[in-house]
Predict the 3D structure of the following.
Amino acid sequence: MGQQQFGRKYRIRLRADFQRAYRLRCTASDGRLLVFGAANGLGHPRLGLAASRRLGNALVRNRWKRLTREAFRISREQLPPGVDLVVCPRPGVVPKLEEVTASLTRLATRLSERLAGLSP
């Protein structure tokens, strides 16, 4: 059970880490999610959430955040290691766990490939 928890080491908490992902401008997106990525130098992926007010009211934003955290927790073993993922949900989409999980896995893999191409 301890392997499946969403512990502190899997969260992006510092503003500097969010800014690093935004500044690098390495993104991948689909109809549900926009994901910013940056290498983190750790042996595991980390997740940061950015749910703005244009997404909807607090109920909608919190639902997106819960589902994204759960999708990350479930698919953590399939996600590439050493990547910070800042996830921004797209407005106007009704979140479903299966779709968010598939989308997060696909976009994180795409981001990892792009980040590998950026490294000298």
Q: What stands out?
A: Residues 63 and 74 are 16 Å apart (CA to CA).
